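anyone seen this seq b4? input:
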Amino acid sequence: MSDPEPRLTGPVLVVGAGLLGTSIALALRRADVDVALSDVSREHVRIASGLGAANLTAAGVRPELVVVAVPPDALGTEIAAALQVHPQAVVTDVGSVKTDPLLEALEVAGEQAGGRYVGGHPMAGSERSGPLAASDSLFDGRPWAVTPHAGSRPEATELVLALVEVCGATAVRLGPEEHDQAVARTSHLPHLLAALVAGRLADAPEGHLVLSGQGVRDVTRIAAGDPALWQQIVLANTTALTALLRDVRDDVDTLLAAIGHRDREALADILHRGVRGTAAIPGKHGGLPTPVATVFVTLADHPGELARLFADAGEVGVNIEDLRIDHDPARDYGLAEVSVAASAADHLLTSLETRGWTVHR
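predicted toks r here
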């Protein structure tokens, strides 16, 4: 008869009362797990506690689990401190890079204590920060990387998996180095390339920027992230990022050669590879990509129009997979790009036309 799966009974100490730390604390309290909070900012602790994120004080608590939710530069130090100060506790974290903090923590706390550490990284967030942006549902349905290292104890890994379950997320088990390679490819590299493209706009003539459309907004949106935080993330993952950036540099050299020689075949290879890459991105809920089609809808720029569009799509039984709005600078309306399952596109187009919308494919 197999042993029952470990349950997270608490108490849990969350170190860092920002967006992620407070959201984890709120999710734990939603499940009636006892929580204590600590942070260098007393104001963050006060606000988070006022939101119901903690029912214990950090002083004197003997946690079953410590969750370290601090900026990347402080991760290794705080993980090591948690292992040393709480010798009975399993320790995890929510940092976006795993290898360097692991090595730093093991160097300080030792290999034996390091057996109680299992890294974690919830793939969830918000453009807002701080405890007031937190939500107990932030992780619902989201992937959460769990990264045990070679010395991690099995029971420590199981407890961190229990945390993921309590928070409503889906665990994805990876090694620390594999995790760092994955996020370099899917998160850190895209951010740096977006920053490079957006940087080309900073000193552009005003007349050029008037021509900005949805494409440039899509490519550059993530470049608006906090530079101080992204410096820490990038410099903590230099090994994986350097290899990828060198690959991109080679691709740019190939592209320059194709353009310089007007080599249509080489250019087509590059563009087709991009199409294959977009097709490889998992679909919603992590499933296979679903074929989608776009229906363009003229949208008057006044309150209630978007809600009316959603309501009409719902009434005709069409689920909207994605939505983008391109605002025409010369007119007082926008163009909504409504993505739906390819099989539903014609039905949506016809149905919206009969309801008075101006639409086209």
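The longest strand covers residues 292-300. The chain has a mean pLDDT of 91. kinda curious what u guys think
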